[in-house]
Amino acid sequence: MPEPKAGSSVFKVGKVTTGTLEWTDKQVTVKAKIRGAVLRGDVTKKQAAAMGNTSARDYVLAHQPRWTKASFEWLHLFGSALGGPNALGNLVAGTFDANTQMLAVEQGLRNYCANDENDVTPQSPVYVTVTANLMDGTWIAEHIAFAAEHAGQELTSGSFSGITSSRYSTLAFDIFGELALGFALGSGGTDEDYSDRDD
Known about the structure:
two-stranded antiparallel ribbon; 36% strand; six-stranded antiparallel beta sheet; alpha+beta; globular; 3 helices
């Protein structure tokens, strides 16, 4: 699998979502524009296939052989539920915990864009930026930051570690003021638990 060097690509999902993916050996940035209720991205190619037919766990252990206790997954920086593709530049290796945090944010954005009262339209799109700082020369995310805005107002922003191995019993986000998402988690989950998890 090619290690990250300078590169870029674009993606489009119907007339609703467009975005750019840009990466170097140290950072990946996704910028997307959502113009209405979102459609799923192209996931005909599985995440592992998009990343050189390698599971995230095998990839991480090839670079960090002592990291055997954490559960690693390919994380969408811009989630497929929002229109993000399974493609080089939109996937980074991170822990189950980090992916769960991303899924909560993505579901909040999906719900926001689907609510007609929020008036997400081609003339008034939601702008999303997600940046992952990479472990030098790898697709392993050390840190992920995200921000979304609509009509000049910040909807949500935050950051977290991509390689945390902590476990917790409850994760709750208060996104967009009135939307709270909670997950009761044990030491992990199964692939069937989350629609964006396929590797």
